[in-house]
Amino acid sequence: MDSLFLQVLNMSITASYVIVFVIMARLLLKKVPKIFSYALWFVVLFRLVCPFSFESVFSLLPAAAETIPQDIMYSQTPQIHSGIPIIDQGINRVMPSPVVGASVNPMQIWIALGELVWLAGMAVLFLYSVFTTVKLYRKLRSATSLSGNIYELNDIKTPFVFGIKYG
After folding, report:
1. Does residue 3 form part of some domain?
2. What percent of the chain has pLDDT over 90?
3. What are 86-125's pLDDT values in tens digits?
4. Is 28 exposed, middle or buried (0-12, 13-18, 19+ CB in 10 A)?
5. Residue 111 sits in the same domain as residue 160
6. Does one domain contain both 65 and 1?
7. pTM for the whole thing?
8. Inter-helix orientation angle 2-28/34-49, to 10°
9. C-alpha distance across the termini of the chain, in Å
């Protein structure tokens, strides 16, 4: 679980660099058709979903492949390598070092807490999505069929798609 959490965390950090780039590029692309501006967000989606990346000499991302190393919990001097020296210095200065004779490394505690917050956040989002889907489904039961798969409901003023029909 620790390695999965650290991999997702590293992917999220890398995606945050891409998000900053997309926001800056959108500011420059105000006069360009919106489809190009929206297409930039697919780069962010790719970075968040795919666990690998393509490396290039002309990369806009920092050179470090992993900002947070997988073995940071067991390191004598835990350090991150974001590729931005001022950030590295600030964070590495406050990273807890292992205490000789202690039963657990402080980094293990922080990573375990991060995992718990991550899992709790996923559970809350899942429960919220189930709750709102059931609530919407109950509201849609009174819809009347117009033709085929098109329904009308007086309580909802905007059109939307609910579900996907296969086959």
Report:
1. yes
2. 14
3. 888 888 888 877 777 767 778 888 889 999 999 999 999 9
4. exposed
5. yes
6. yes
7. 0.68
8. 170
9. 38
